[in-house]
Amino acid sequence: MKIINKTSIxxxxxxxxxxxxxxxxxxxxxxxxxxxxxxxxxxxxxxDNAIWGLYGKFAELAEHVVVLNELRADLMDVTPNATPxxxxxxxxxxxxxxxxxxxxxxxxVILNANDMIANFNKMLAENKISRxxxxxxxxxxxxxxxxxxxxxxxxxxxxxxxxxxxxxxxAVLNADNFPKKNIDELIPLLIGEMQALxxxxxxxxxxxxxxxIQDNSKSFxxxxxxxxxxxxxxxxxxxxxxxxxxxxxxxxxxxxxxVSSAKTQIKNKVSGWVWAGNNEPRFQICYQRFKDxxxxxxxxxxxxxxxxxxxxxxxxxxxxxxxxxxxxxxxSGAANSSSPFVKLFxxxxxxxxxxxxxxxxxxxxxxxxxxxxxxxxxxxxxxxSSFDVINGQPVVLKYLYDYYNxxxxxxxxxxxxxxxxxxxxxxxxxxxFLYRAxxxxxxxxxxxxxxxYPRLAYALLNNGIxxxxxxxxxxxxxxxxxxxxxxxxxxxxxxxxxxxPYPEPFYLxxxxxxAPYTFLRSPWRDNSGIRGRAYLVSIQKPDWVxxxxxxxxxxxxxxxxxxxxxxGFEGQRxxxxxxxxxxxxxxxxxxxATFVKQYVDKKFEAAGKxxxxxxxxxxxxxxxx
Length: 625
What we know:
alpha+beta, 18 strands, globular
């Protein structure tokens, strides 16, 4: 298959701006030209060029991935402007002729990856690339292919599994000699592919590593554009109910982030602190110290996760976007780099307002959450953050911060968007959010819970490690010197014995201490928990939770609900519902569909419609041929 260098985002054009003197003569100035294989794989810079082009094809998946994962689930609904295909997908009546059932965008990525893998192998055999340079690049491309097959597996029944180069997608869909795989068969196969990679580490040898580029007067940090292999393998293990293995990959990623960053107490830690009004909080929702009863002292920095540029690094003490965001595709708003989400979600400017937040998501999830200390009832991650009401209509806001780029900041430094004033409505910049620290914590907590550590999962979900592992003495007093407490551990056997730490990968150290005791500044000391960072009360254990098995079930359902609140609209919801339902149904397809249906029904009930006809027969879609 020929590699086409034209991309839907800033990719190829941006690559040519990197000013890599050693490969300038190898870059084709005509980004629309098809480059023949014989000319395209001569050295390591050609290999990087091909990877960059592959991500250009990958970026074209954004609409399919978000719409399939969100509209089929419970948090997103159609508007009167929705297309018939979107309505059918929402109502689970989609046929193979539905535009979203066309696998062509996915197989464009897969077949380009297959072609690249074959050519990388040929380059290695012909000594056009060293093994040191081959291994991370080969691993990158295989991982992209695995991720793409993984997405197909979540949605489609029978998936043609092809690993050899082919000339066209039609050759895949029309041939009977390619094996068809369902989700149960494909996930173990993908795990095997990932396990066989020569490396899971970040590709630091890439020409793009650590680079920042300019496009359409915007800056982009290239590292955030690329998939992380450890997190993908962790997710595959989680789907395969290999909980310790999943947690091991998640923890390895977090450990690597500590090593690569001086901000070990901030990087990917979902951290927070008390805002006094004169220092900058983390990506949290909070009130000025001693003013939490006054809504006018409200500060919402959580929404800045979606408004800040990829180049934002913060400072030594304060978070930057790179401390939260792990994987994000950026669209500059140039003619060949437009966000597909403006059309889908915006109801002003060039938006067609086809999809909206479901009434269930707004009224029964975000607007029912209770805040700490003041008891205010709303979730700051919802209103004017993940969604807002614009011209009387509920709008998915999370993807529109760059489009509504006219911002004001109130007295408490909370940003607000001006929906009536768009600098250039025809320029449609935006971002596609694929993985961030909060999602990582939710996945790690899910794995830890199922591995038998529900207290750790509770801590990550609610108010952090330190608050849940400060083991008191038998008389109720706290251990002042903090030795033996505030790290994940089993309860101490007596007042004079240190707590036994959890084994890896479940050991997290949150100890903090000052003189005259041992000085400690441990990496997890500022971890505030997912709900703690959002200034919400911790969930309370219901009466029916008695046994450890009860606790694991309760925590898992709580994590599923919290994932909606924290990561709503980010293209994770259908996968979350399907993964949890498959696990609880022990693989039974009818029971799986029943579990998913009880969530999707809530969307239709809140909209005043009848329940959806979701069964084992339409839980997975038919591919268009």
